[in-house]
Amino acid sequence: MQFLHTMVRIRDIDASLHFYCDLLGLEEVRRKESEKGRFTLIFLAAPNDVERSERLTAPELELTYNWDPEEYDGGRNFGHLAYRVDDIYATCERLQNAGVTINRPPRDGHMAFVKSPDGISIELLQKGDAFEPQEPWASMDNSGSW
């Protein structure tokens, strides 16, 4: 068995690509448009997984955009996506400066949670050992659900 991808439905391609690619740093590796099925599939990979994704079509995040309007709810009951980052504090600061709410700040220097434009929880984990706690993160309260 091999893990292939996680799929999340999205409502706005531009907003989702801005969040996942521009802000989180994932890269689009391929796209499929289905006129008959009336959907677009966009596959993303983390920078360190792009080569493996191109070879194996895994591991990836599949964004599914249905052309006909639909309402999606639940984000939190989906669970979450998790990504290892080189610098948890710099990543959270970049996201926050771009207007993303840090729902669970990295108080412990190891873990944070944010949400995508569609309400999907994203866990950010510090690569290697946890950083020493530092402000403003160490005393920041949670915001909303994560």
Q: On the 0-100 scale, what is the average pLDDT?
A: 92
Number of helical stretches of at least 4 residues: 3
Shape: globular
Radius of gyration based on Cα positions: 16 Å
Query: Which strand-content bin applies to the residues?
Result: 25-35%
What is the share of helical residues? 10-25%
Query: pLDDT below 50 for ≥5 consecutive residues: which ranges?
Result: none
Secondary-structure-based class equals alpha/beta
**Helix-strand topology string:** EHEEHEEHEE
The strand order across the widest sheet is 1-4-3-2
- Total beta strand runs: 7
Distance between the termini: 30 Å
Biggest sheet architecture: 4 strands, mixed
What does this structure look like?
There is one protein chain. With 146 residues, the protein is α/β, with parallel strands linked by helices. The protein is built from three helices and seven strands; from the N terminus they run E-H-E-E-H-E-E-H-E-E. The strands form two sheets. Strands 1-4-3-2 form a four-stranded mixed beta sheet, with helices on both faces. Strands 5-7-6 form a three-stranded mixed beta sheet. Strand 6 and strand 7 (121-126) form a beta hairpin. The chain is globular. The chain starts with a strand and ends in a 20-residue tail after the last strand. The relative contact order is 0.19.
Give the SSE layout.
Elements: E1 5-10, H1 13-23, E2 27-34, E3 39-45, H2 50-56, E4 60-66, E5 80-85, H3 88-97, E6 111-115, E7 121-126
Parallel strand pairs: 1-4, 5-7
Antiparallel strand pairs: 2-3, 3-4, 6-7
